[in-house]
Amino acid sequence: MTRASLDKQPREVAAMFDKVAARYDLTNDVLSLGQDRVWRRAVTRAVDARPGERVLDLAAGTGTSSVPFASAGAYTVPCDFSLGMLREGKKREPWMPFTAGDATRLPFADDVFDAVTISFGLRNVHDTDAALREMLRVTKPGGRVVICEFSHPTWAPFRTVYTEYLMRALPPLATAVSSNPDAYVYLAESIRAWPDQPALARRLQDAGWTRVAWRNLTGGIVALHRGFAA
Length: 230
Prior knowledge:
It catalyses: a 2-demethylmenaquinol + S-adenosyl-L-methionine = a menaquinol + S-adenosyl-L-homocysteine + H(+). By secondary structure, the protein is an alpha/beta fold.
């Protein structure tokens, strides 16, 4: 396998992320021109983790996204289906309860978490709607979900430039800094195929989330969606 196809077979996608685990955070920093740090800070504010709360961080990878929630005093569970990512994360943050899990069949009881979040991982799940329902299942009534995902720039000229960057500039950049450049070609293609902001909001509502809203970051390159469990 050179890269996972857009039908997102879980075993292939997991294997792809296993291969890029060691340099994943560095590569993301380079390819996003440092914007990934801005986006993650926005997620931290949106989740608003508090002492004593339980937070589930899906597609947590090496745990970089999970640390701010734990630092705020929340019991934070980083969960990912890539064992390579989890092993790398455990090396860096051995105190965190890294957990292997498939977003469509989460290994947690009902109504456990005050907040569930996933950053840049939902589009890699083979059944998005099942994952949204599972997130709701494990969230307490009144709890919240925060989804940070690549989306569609709202200004047409910028959207054109962005698409050109994804498909032309990203692959050679990935070749220079990543341990598996083909993985980033797949990621660029998956970004282009992902639903726009209103479409993802509708899918959240269809899954049972209430008070769904979103806001754009970096001109819509990324969108933060939020919803609440009834």
